[in-house]
Design goal:
Blueprint: H1 3-19, H2 40-54, H3 58-70, H4 101-115, H5 126-140, H6 174-182, H7 188-195, E1 202-204, H8 209-212, H9 227-236, E2 246-248, H10 260-266, H11 273-280, H12 285-293, H13 295-309
Antiparallel strand pairs: 1-2
Helix pairs in contact: 1-13, 2-4, 2-5, 3-4, 3-5, 4-5, 7-13, 10-12, 12-13
Length: 331
């Protein structure tokens, strides 16, 4: 991909950042805690690093937690709230049951490390800790470093019913993906860049089984899928497989935050329909090819997109607070 096309792709993202009207994110700043808790980023970095060295799952689990949080009423840490006898929280919605516990544990450990510093105790939102932990997880897995805007407040509610229809599904087509992301002010290019996070993590067999078994009356296997890849998936996910069995989203470099995801799509090795459609649909294919060709182009677009995602639906002092315990709403 030549330099001009690269500049156009990044410039179009930058322009969308300026044009999309969002008055709440004006409160965000990388320096929000410079006087409140000056060592915040270092504290969170060390907590995430320690957890990451215990288990690699820390990285994809934390990143996925951030995405699932922001897509439901904004980046307000409502995904972290535990259910009570009188309230079924977001984390217990069926679409969130596959979230790995290591993501929650990462944020809780980072919160504990922050609160262990008297100057910082109960002055940093769980939403900001999650945003910072996500950046650290990406970097630890080999992805790009980026500035994290801070100043979010934690949400005042967490209801499983809020999740309905707000998260992308594995069988989504391009129109459905575009519509859902557009509802958060995110463009198609930004959606494709954020989808690159599927370079990490795993999925349970049930989420893609239809693509390799009984796809249609005419064919068992989705014709957009590479035949050898389909055979591999069938061997790893036989019929009536244990539902706990999980498959890497990226069959080539599952432990690296890189641009291999887009190369996989070019080869028919996208695990979900919602992955592979990014290449099979001619409207999104040029961006996939651009990101597959240049790691730098992918990284710059990903940074712009995740920064914009981090501004979605943020809360302020009027409609949020700072939780003392990330899993419990303040009384």
């Amino acid at each position: 991909m030549d330099g001009l096309h690269h500049l156009i792709l990044v410039w179009s993202l930058s322009l969308s950042l300026l044009l999309y009207p969002n008055f709440t994110y004006a409160q965000l700043s990388p320096h929000h805690y410079s006087k409140i808790c000056p060592n915040l980023e270092h504290i969170v970095r060390e907590a995430v690093r320690k957890k990451f060295h215990q288990t690699f799952v820390t990285a994809p689990a934390t990143i996925r937690l951030f995405f699932h949080d922001c897509f439901v009423h904004g980046c307000d840490a409502s995904i972290l709230v535990a259910s009570t006898k009188n309230n079924k929280a977001e984390k217990d919605h069926p679409d969130n049951l596959s979230l790995a516990g290591d993501g929650f544990d990462t944020v809780n450990k980072a919160k504990a490390a922050v609160d262990a510093v008297p100057q910082c105790r109960n002055k940093v939102s769980c939403a900001d800790i999650l945003a910072l932990a996500t950046r650290e997880a990406i970097v630890l897995a080999g992805g790009p470093w980026y500035v994290v805007e801070l100043g979010r407040y934690d949400g005042l509610e967490s209801k499983a019913s809020n999740v309905n229809g707000r998260l992308p599904q594995p069988d989504f087509n391009l129109n459905q993906l575009n519509s859902l992301f557009a509802s958060h002010g995110l463009t198609q290019t930004e959606m494709i860049a954020l989808s690159g996070a599927h370079t990490l993590g795993f999925s349970h067999c049930s989420r893609f089984a239809k693509r390799v078994y009984n796809y249609s009356p005419k064919t068992q296997v989705d014709p957009t899928m590479d035949e050898r890849y389909a055979q591999d998936l069938r061997s790893m996910c036989p019929r009536n497989v244990d539902p706990r069995i999980a498959i890497n989203m990226d069959p080539a470099t599952p432990h690296a935050f890189d641009h291999q995801y887009y190369k996989n799509l070019q080869q028919g090795k996208g695990l979900f329909t919602s992955d592979q459609v990014l290449f099979t649909d001619p409207r999104s294919r040029p961006a996939v090819n651009a990101f597959a060709t240049s790691a730098h182009t992918f990284q710059q677009n990903f940074i712009a997109a995740i920064t914009k995602l981090g501004r979605v639906g943020i809360k302020n002092a009027h409609n949020g607070n700072i939780r003392n315990d990330c899993s419990v709403l303040n009384r």
